[in-house]
C-alpha cells in the first residue's frame, strides 16, 4: 500500500471515529435529558426506549423526540424552537446544531430558575 493510500485510510478512520464518538455522546445526551424529564414527571417515556427507537429508526425518532422536547421547553417559558430544529434536521446539519440550540434553551431556562426544580441543571 502506498504512503498516500495509507494517509487517506488514516484520515477516513479518524473522521469516522470522531463521527461515531459524537453519535455515542449524542445518544448519552438524549438519555440524560430524557431521564431528567421522567424523574420530574414532565415525560413518561423511559430514556432507553427513546435511545432504542432513535437507533432503530436511524435517527428519525430523534427528530420527533427533539420536537417533543422543544414543546416541553416552550411550556416552561422557553422559546419555541421546534420549527428551527426541524428545518436544521431536514438540512442534515441538525445533527450538530439542533442539540446546541436545545441545550442553549435549557441553559437559559435554568439561569432564570424556572427549570432548576424541573430538570437537573
Could you describe the 3D structure shown?
With 121 residues, the protein is mainly α. It has 5 helices and no strands. It has helices at residues 3-39, 47-56, 60-75, 82-90, 94-111. Helix content is 74%, strand content 0%.
Summarize it.
The protein has 121 residues and is an all-alpha fold. The chain has five helices and no strands.
Low-confidence stretches: none
Report the strand count.
0
Summed over residues and divided by their number, the pLDDT gives a mean of 80
Distance between the termini: 51 Å
Structural class: mainly alpha
List the helices and strands and how they pair.
Layout (H helix, E strand, L loop, with lengths): L2 H37 L7 H10 L3 H16 L6 H9 L3 H18 L10
What are the defining features of this structure?
single chain; mainly alpha; 5 helices; 74% helix
Amino acid at each position: 500500500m502506498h504512503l498516500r493510500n495509507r494517509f487517506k485510510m488514516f484520515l477516513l478512520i479518524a473522521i469516522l471515529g470522531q463521527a461515531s464518538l459524537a453519535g455515542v455522546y449524542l445518544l448519552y445526551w438524549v438519555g440524560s435529558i430524557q431521564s431528567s424529564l421522567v424523574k420530574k414527571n414532565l415525560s413518561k417515556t423511559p430514556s432507553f426506549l427513546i435511545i432504542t427507537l432513535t437507533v432503530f429508526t436511524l435517527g428519525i425518532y430523534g427528530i420527533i423526540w427533539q420536537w417533543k422536547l422543544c414543546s416541553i421547553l416552550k411550556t416552561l417559558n422557553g422559546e419555541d424552537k421546534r420549527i428551527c430544529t426541524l428545518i436544521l434536521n431536514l438540512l442534515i446539519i441538525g445533527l450538530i446544531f439542533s442539540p446546541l440550540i436545545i441545550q442553549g434553551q435549557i441553559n437559559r431556562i435554568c439561569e432564570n430558575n424556572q427549570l432548576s426544580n424541573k430538570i437537573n441543571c
